[in-house]
Amino acid sequence: MSKKIMILPGDGIGPEIVEQAVAVLKVADEKFGLNLEFTEGLIGGASIDAHGEPLTDAELKNAGECDAVLLGAVGGPKWDTLDRAIRPEKGLLKIRSGLGLYANLRPAILYPQLAEASSLKPEVVSGLDILIVRELTGGIYFGEPRGIKTLENGEKQGYNTYVYKESEIERIARTAFEAAQKRGGKLCSVDKANVLDVTVLWREVLDRLAPEYPDVELSHMYVDNAAMQLVRAPKQFDVMVTGNMFGDILSDAAAMLTGSIGMLPSASMNESGFGLYEPCHGSAPDIAGQGVANPLATILSAAMMLRYSLDMGEAAAAIEAAVSKVLDQGLRTADIYTEGSKKVSTAEMGAAVVAAF
Amino acid sequence: MSKKIMILPGDGIGPEIVEQAVAVLKVADEKFGLNLEFTEGLIGGASIDAHGEPLTDAELKNAGECDAVLLGAVGGPKWDTLDRAIRPEKGLLKIRSGLGLYANLRPAILYPQLAEASSLKPEVVSGLDILIVRELTGGIYFGEPRGIKTLENGEKQGYNTYVYKESEIERIARTAFEAAQKRGGKLCSVDKANVLDVTVLWREVLDRLAPEYPDVELSHMYVDNAAMQLVRAPKQFDVMVTGNMFGDILSDAAAMLTGSIGMLPSASMNESGFGLYEPCHGSAPDIAGQGVANPLATILSAAMMLRYSLDMGEAAAAIEAAVSKVLDQGLRTADIYTEGSKKVSTAEMGAAVVAAF
Ligand SMILES: CC(C)[C@H](C(=O)O)[C@@H](O)C(=O)O
Ligand SMILES: CC(C)[C@H](C(=O)O)[C@@H](O)C(=O)O
Predict the structure, then answer these.
(1) Ligand 2 atom closest to the CA of B74, numbered from 1
(2) Looking at CA atoms only, how far is residue B2 from chain A in angstroms?
(3) How many helices and strands, by DSSP H and E, does chain B display?
(4) pLDDT in the model for residue B85
(5) Taking the mean position of all CA atoms in its chain, how far away is CA A158?
(6) CA angle at residue B166 from B105 to B238, to 5 degrees?
(7) B160 to chain A: which residues are within 8 Å by CB?
(8) Where would you tag: which of A320, A332, B192, B199 has the fewest CB atoms within 10 A of its CB?
(9) Gap between the Cα atoms of B188 and B157, Å rounded
(10) Last residue of a domain, one of B200, B228, B257
(11) B319: closest CA of chain A, how far (Å)
(12) What's the number of domains chain B is made of?
């Protein structure tokens, strides 16, 4: 039985990097007999241009009927002046929410070959390997009521609602506890329970579940302190779990600790293991179409997809090994280039991974 | 006419560090004829122990009748199991809100003498000098409705409201524009306007005011990117302005870039220039009472108080010069100690600043 993969290249560098990831998936398919089938769709600015909206209901349905989704990136200056309701980002929020992809896994790993790229001292980050588990379909991103209204005195007021119910907290907490069990056995839950009621409930639920995972050491940290600790001593963390907004901020900070955000994949999954896979970085419109973008985060996202959604762990490991090999060979796209290494284009990097198989 | 200063030592290391700051203020008073008058009050755990609440209305009124407030820090494990409504932190939130201290100024400065303390590479942080302007009496910290309720199906739901009206945004924006005028002329406003309606209004107001400050270059950045850029290349920033919650997170991350949070003061001011001054760090209960805490952030907070609330810029500069001098002398409390320097106690550090006058 074949596995159907929905490819959503999106905008900016999205199409270039996704092209390389698909090439790598195809060679993995040949080699391991994965029986993959590809179908392509539109999201973000590309969909706005074609259909006037960043993700059509039909495309959302198509994606949901596949076995997994591989996404490039969305957004760019071309669509920045559009009405907010139809901006490219809304397509991303719609697919996350529409497919119930509540569990966002964002690893921040320092590749030893790229240790120099970090802005932190080597002793602070060498060997860094954190997994941030971010709730992705709730919290203040989707809470109602929301909007901008005019008060009686004529001035405007903007408002959003930060809301979580126990069941939403529980399912993402379980994802995080289980991930910690498979890793270093440490889970740090991040909240602001000294100020925000909603995160008081968050902390309660984590504490309630903890006894079910006796092999995981649970700790709690306020979000401001977590931001500090990521800068001061990031290696103290194994798995971190937090809500949508704090997760957005902390996962980007953590990714940047590695200095090579062009290397970092992510997974967004629902209850049944169905997932959307995408690089952590954005659409980088400034370098789009130049063939210089780093395709490795997308290639590694494809590997995550094989492992987590398609139960093809062997092929996933082979892709990851191939990526490691090209780094060992000294090949670098511009974003991770340092003197003495060999600067390559997007296509050359993709081809090198294929060749390293 | 004398100037009345309310001293709120608070908890943990608060009393020790405030004691040194008061000693420094007294020698400044003598030297510059400032005519300062001191009165002491209770906040945080100290107030809970005495009155059963973290800040009494009477004490709030006392503070408001002074010319400025100098605060140590609040909180500690002793009060962690109390009902949330009467925790030490609530005293801090109550005084901020009760005195209308909406403008929180948090400088992140790397002292050249302490450059080694940073976890970042020297070239990334040397000369770092950022000012974060954080809105302190609104946003999700104070927004209503808030709470935890039980849904029809029996599960609990927690919620908070992130809300700003135009006038609240405008006044903090003006604080930030004016600060930028006096500094490097660059203001970066941080929001999440691609997701949160309330920050769409935030961005609108900043853009509307910008033409009134033609000498300030205004830019906008999403909060996730701001967290990344602080790690990647913090020296790109001059002044940053943002709401209460994002400001809490980003100011702590920025402070930690310097590696010496024990050095960083902060000011929280209202419309008329009245202010509360406190170190950026917390009450550090683990080292309280040992005489090893760093009093310099509090001493520098006292200097900020003289400059911003009491119009005593000369005395403020003298305190700052004295602090720089003791650093040049190689004196270091434990938190900033490195080999080859001279480790001193809280009291010795305070005495050295007094002597350096
Ligand atoms: C583009 C934006 C809506 C999105 C988010 O905030 O979730 C992005 O920053 C991310 O982290 O995937
Ligand atoms: C103690 C806490 C309520 C406070 C805040 O979140 O504002 C602190 O973190 C700060 O930044 O001053």
Answers:
(1) 1
(2) 37
(3) 12, 14
(4) 84
(5) 28
(6) 30
(7) 161-163, 196-198
(8) A320
(9) 35
(10) B257
(11) 28
(12) 2
**Minimal-distance CA residue of chain B relative to A159:** B163
Residue B124 lies in a domain: no
Same domain, A316 and A357: yes
pLDDT in tens, A108-151: 999 999 988 999 999 999 999 999 999 999 999 999 999 999 99
pLDDT mean across residues, chain B: 97
Q: For residue B80, what pLDDT is reported?
A: 86
Of all residues in chain A, the percent with pLDDT exceeding 90 is 96
CB B189 within 8 A of CB B172: no
CATH number at residue A188: 3.40.718.10
Beta bridge partners, B64, equal: none
Q: Which residues pair with A139 in a beta bridge?
A: none
Token pair for residue A326?
């090209």
Q: Is the pLDDT of residue A1 over 90?
A: no
Token digits of residue B20: 């040194």
Q: Where is the domain boundary, A257, A279, A295?
A: A257
Residues with CB under 6 A from ligand 2: A 194-195, 224; B 89, 92-93, 248
Q: Which two structure tokens, joined as six digits, stand for B27? A: 């020698």
Q: For chain A, report the end-to-end CA distance as a whole number of angstroms.
A: 24
Domain assignment present for residue A123? The answer is: no
Three-state helix/strand/coil letters over B278-291 = EECCCCCHHHCCCC
A124, part of any domain: no
Is-contact A75 A88, C-beta < 8 A? yes
Q: Please name which of B298, B91, B247 lies closest in space to residue A194, comparing C-alpha atoms.
A: B91
Cβ contact B224:B276 at 8 Å: no
Say whether the peptide bond before residue A234 is cis (omega within 30 degrees of 0): no
| Least CB–CB distance from A120: residue in B119, B162, B252 | B119
Consult the annotation and say whether B174 binds a ligand: no
Domain that holds residue A148: 129-257
pLDDT of A13-37, one tens digit each?
Answer: 999 999 999 999 999 999 999 999 9
Do A245 and A270 have their domain in common? no
| Structure token digits, residue A269 | 């999954």
Interface contacts A/B by beta carbons within 8 Å:
180
